[in-house]
């Protein structure tokens, strides 16, 4: 880990010294002032921000002891090359017990292509010590962004990018006590929210996802408020939703196959303090 942090510091220093033309998108954003370089460097140093491209096979194992083979029930842990970690739990009767890297498509996370089988990922870890665990109204503003491909949209009962309460894993996405998510259900992109164990409130964004398309879903936690984005643009008709102040929440991904089933490939996952990627965002921790 020390070697990795040294590498990050050296790489960032080289990036900051490069011209925007040669430094790529991140370098241009730093040059334009869209990214605060000092905050980005600090969040990288502390392990609070990760941008993970799915171009490799993560290491996987049983969470309980850290070394045994993963199981269908889990919980299991996935550790990625650039520092992302996630706890994942199978839904249904999974016989494929982990994500599989595909050299042309990215990371296959759907595992068994079977009706009512699925998987859910909590980024960082469950519990208050998780790298991306967030205390609403106290911690700096956070975000979760995932770009992924759905091969056959009719094969998803749920395919959701979420923040949800830090609690025991639930087999049904509607059973979490508090949650905010963008959920792709048979090609319809919906906003779903739960507050204090009430009935799930579902809003159709009127946006759609076609077979084989790639899109980026993003949730931002700004104070208590949640901002819902698709491909960088806020969902125009998303309802106002505020988590309870002091609630402990975690970034989350939930997938459940429908009878038609589908393959789902992650392209990248980005998670951390919003100020790491937006210089206008407030950051209570710095």
Account of the 3D structure:
The structure is a single chain. By secondary structure, the protein is mainly beta. The longest helix has 16 residues, at 2-17. The chain has one domain (47-276): Jelly Rolls, CATH 2.60.120.200. Strands 2, 3, 4, 7, 8, 10, 11, 12, 13 and 17 form a ten-stranded antiparallel beta sheet that branches. Strands 1, 5, 6, 9, 14, 15, 16 and 18 form an eight-stranded antiparallel beta sheet that branches. The protein contains three helices and 18 strands. The protein starts with a helix and ends in a 13-residue tail after the last strand.
Number of strands: 18
Distance linking N and C termini: 23 Å
Specify the biggest β-sheet.
10 strands, antiparallel
Individual helix count: 3
Helix content: 10-25%
Low-confidence stretches: 1-30
Please state the structural category.
Answer: mainly beta
CATH class: Mainly Beta
Categorize the overall geometry. globular
Percentage of β-strand residues: 35-45%
Q: Please write the string of helix (H) and strand (E) elements.
A: HHHEEEEEEEEEEEEEEEEEE
Entry keywords:
single chain, 286 residues, mainly beta, Jelly Rolls, 3 helices, 13% helix, disordered N terminus
Strands, helices and their partners?
Blueprint: H1 2-17, H2 20-32, H3 37-45, E1 50-53, E2 59-62, E3 76-79, E4 85-91, E5 100-102, E6 106-108, E7 118-123, E8 134-135, E9 142-150, E10 156-165, E11 179-185, E12 188-194, E13 201-208, E14 214-222, E15 225-230, E16 233-234, E17 248-257, E18 264-273
Antiparallel strand pairs: 1-18, 2-3, 3-4, 4-7, 5-6, 6-18, 7-17, 8-17, 9-14, 9-18, 10-11, 10-17, 11-12, 12-13, 14-15, 15-16
Helix pairs in contact: 1-3
């Amino acid at each position: 880990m020390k070697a990795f942090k040294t590498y990050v510091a050296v790489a960032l220093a080289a990036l900051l010294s490069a011209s925007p033309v040669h430094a790529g998108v991140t370098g241009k954003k730093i040059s334009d002032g869209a990214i605060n370089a000092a905050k980005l460097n600090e969040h990288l140093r502390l392990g609070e921000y990760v941008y993970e491209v799915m171009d490799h096979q993560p290491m996987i194992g049983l969470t309980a002891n850290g070394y045994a083979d993963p199981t269908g029930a889990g919980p299991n842990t996935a550790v990625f090359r650039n520092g992302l970690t996630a706890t994942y739990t199978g839904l249904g009767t999974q016989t494929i017990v982990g994500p599989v890297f595909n050299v042309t498509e990215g990371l296959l996370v759907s595992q068994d292509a079977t009706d009512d089988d699925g998987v859910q990922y909590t980024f960082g870890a469950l519990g208050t010590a998780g790298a991306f665990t967030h205390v609403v109204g106290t911690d700096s503003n956070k975000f979760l962004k995932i770009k992924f491909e759905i091969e056959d949209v009719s094969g998803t009962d749920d395919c959701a990018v979420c923040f949800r309460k830090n609690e025991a894993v639930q087999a049904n996405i509607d059973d979490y006590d508090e949650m905010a998510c963008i959920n792709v259900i048979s090609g319809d992109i919906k906003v779903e929210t739960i507050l204090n164990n009430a009935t799930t409130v579902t809003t159709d964004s009127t946006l759609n996802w076609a077979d084989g398309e790639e899109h980026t879903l993003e949730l931002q936690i700004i104070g208590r408020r949640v901002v819902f984005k698709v491909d960088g643009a806020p969902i125009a008709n998303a309802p106002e939703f505020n988590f309870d102040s002091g609630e402990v929440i975690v970034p989350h991904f939930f997938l459940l196959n429908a009878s038609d089933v589908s393959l789902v490939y992650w392209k990248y996952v980005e998670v951390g303090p919003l100020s790491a990627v937006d210089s206008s965002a407030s950051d209570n921790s710095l």
